[in-house]
């Protein structure tokens, strides 16, 4: 059978432990999930994977750890397309098990600040089980609920607190990258912020700059965006659609962030096929999309989800927001990265002649706009291969620029006869 645990804060706990206890009577039970925020009993109880097979739409650190030991399998996607996968391509879900709040006055069980593709799961599930917990915030939304009449069974949850996602303080490289990006953000811009220290560092700098009337249309609601809201920098007054609303599809962060969404009509939790659709994103002017990558080659291919054949995270919504921001009037997309990293005691460049074998291209060279490191920012739109190589070398770490240029000339990425 195919089971679906849903996403992040909505993954069940009591049901998960009860299912793990039945391990020896089951085999080849397949479970879909996304962004697992705490250890799963079915995985921990079954190290060989004989009984339970774990699949993920996007890796958390736990999913990544399980993948490294052969217990988790990644499903490639554009995150905003997943509701369509359930409705068009996947077989019916045998059992859906999702966490939700107790029933409200309208006969609905709210999934808290998470919508994603949960409505599509419910539509396609033969059996729907809700694990009831009062610790999820009561978030306002369009698709973050299930009606009592759609539920087959209720499970009393243990009311453990929703897991938090730590937000490490930005380092000097993060701040340097953020300074380059923050200078491109104007009053009234509409923000999409990805996960990580660099995007959140941009929020901190915007907070200090006194910028006004920001809008938010994002996939993930982050603590950085929450801080901008609490400081009064986010009003959404200049948005063309969902004016005055902070639009998002799921929240991961601190308890303070979760609390901000509780019965707060300024926040609107929507399906991911709405938040991530480039055709929707582009309807707001001046969209600013900020996302991380782990490696970029001299032609501008951004590999943001793997280290060779080792999968790290997922495509998520990066490509869809890059395209949506480009299509927005005066919109800009930023792919940011530290210029170097350490591996096996060796200092290495993240800007490279060619990607690590096995690395997955998340954003193609034809879509990348701004690339930002601590050494500067470059816009690759309209640039030839040679111009791109020169531009990217200019923001690489100085220790690697000469070698990169020599390699680029050697392979004719930069023609010798052309002066840029």
The total count of strands amounts to 26
Helix content: 25-40%
Strand order of the largest sheet: 15-13-11-10-16-21-25-26
Q: What's the story with the biggest beta sheet?
A: 8 strands, mixed
**Tally of contiguous helical segments:** 14
Q: Keywords, please?
A:
single chain, 420 residues, alpha/beta, Glutaconate Coenzyme A-transferase, 2 domains, eight-stranded mixed sheet, seven-stranded parallel sheet, 14 helices, 27% helix, globular
Account of the protein in words:
This is 4-hydroxybutyrate CoA-transferase. One of its GO terms (molecular function) is acetate CoA-transferase activity. Keywords: Transferase. The protein has helices at 14-21, 41-44, 61-68, 82-88, 118-124, 172-182, 197-209, 223-230, 255-260, 272-275, 278-281, 318-327, 385-394, 398-410; strands at residues 2-7, 29-34, 52-56, 72-74, 93-100, 108-110, 125-132, 145-147, 153-156, 190-193, 215-217, 220-221, 246-248, 250-251, 267-269, 287-292, 295-297, 302-303, 306-307, 310-311, 332-336, 340-343, 346-349, 351-352, 370-373, 376-379. It has 420 residues and is of the alpha/beta class. It folds into two domains: 2-156, Glutaconate Coenzyme A-transferase, CATH 3.40.1080.10; 172-410, Glutaconate Coenzyme A-transferase (3-Layer(aba) Sandwich), CATH 3.40.1080. The strands form seven sheets. Strands 15-13-11-10-16-21-25-26 form an eight-stranded mixed beta sheet, with helices on both faces. The chain has a seven-stranded parallel beta sheet with strand order 4-3-2-1-5-7-9. The chain has a three-stranded mixed beta sheet with strand order 18-17-24, covered by helices on one side. A hairpin with a 4-residue loop joins strand 17 (295-297) and strand 18. The radius of gyration is 22 Å and the shape is globular.
């Amino acid at each position: 059978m195919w089971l679906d645990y849903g996403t992040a804060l909505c993954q069940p706990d009591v049901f998960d432990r009860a299912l793990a206890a039945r391990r020896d009577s089951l085999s080849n039970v397949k479970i879909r999930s996304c962004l697992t925020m705490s250890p799963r009993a079915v995985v921990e109880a079954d190290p060989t994977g004989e009984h339970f097979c774990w699949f993920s739409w996007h890796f958390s650190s736990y999913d990544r750890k399980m993948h490294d030991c052969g217990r988790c399998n990644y499903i490639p996607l554009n995150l905003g397309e997943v509701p369509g996968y359930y409705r068009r391509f996947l077989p019916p879900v045998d059992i859906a098990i999702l966490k939700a709040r107790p029933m409200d006055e309208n006969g609905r069980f709210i999934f808290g600040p998470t919508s994603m593709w949960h409505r599509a799961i419910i539509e396609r599930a033969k059996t729907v089980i809700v694990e009831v917990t009062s610790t999820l915030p009561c978030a306002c939304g369009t698709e973050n609920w299930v009606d009592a009449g759609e539920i087959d069974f209720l499970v009393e949850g243990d009311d453990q607190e929703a897991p938090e996602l730590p937000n490490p303080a930005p380092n000097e490289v993060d701040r340097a990258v953020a300074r380059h990006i923050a200078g491109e953000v104007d009053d009234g811009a509409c923000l999409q912020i990805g996960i990580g220290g660099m995007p959140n560092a941009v929020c901190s700098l915007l907070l200090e700059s006194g910028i006004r009337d920001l809008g938010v249309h994002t996939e993930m609601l982050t603590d950085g965006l929450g801080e901008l809201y609490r400081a009064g920098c986010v009003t959404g007054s200049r948005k063309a659609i969902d004016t005055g609303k902070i639009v998002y599809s799921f929240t991961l962060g601190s308890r303070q962030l979760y609390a901000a969404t509780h019965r707060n009509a300024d926040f609107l939790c929507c399906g991911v096929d709405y938040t991530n659709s480039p055709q929707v994103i582009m309807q707001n002017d001046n969209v600013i999309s900020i996302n991380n990558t782990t490696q970029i080659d001299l032609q501008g291919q951004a590999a943001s989800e793997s280290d060779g054949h080792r999968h790290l995270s997922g495509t998520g919504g990066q490509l869809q927001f890059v395209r949506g921001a480009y299509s927005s009037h005066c919109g800009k997309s930023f792919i940011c990265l530290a210029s170097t990293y350490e591996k096996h005691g060796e200092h290495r460049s993240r800007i490279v002649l060619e990607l690590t074998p096995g690395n997955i291209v998340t954003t193609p060279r034809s879509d990348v706009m701004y690339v930002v490191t601590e050494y500067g920012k470059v816009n690759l739109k309209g640039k030839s291969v040679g111009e791109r190589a020169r531009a990217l070398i200019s923001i690489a770490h100085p220790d690697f620029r000469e070698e990169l240029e020599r390699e680029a000339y050697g392979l004719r990425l930069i023609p010798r006869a052309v002066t840029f």
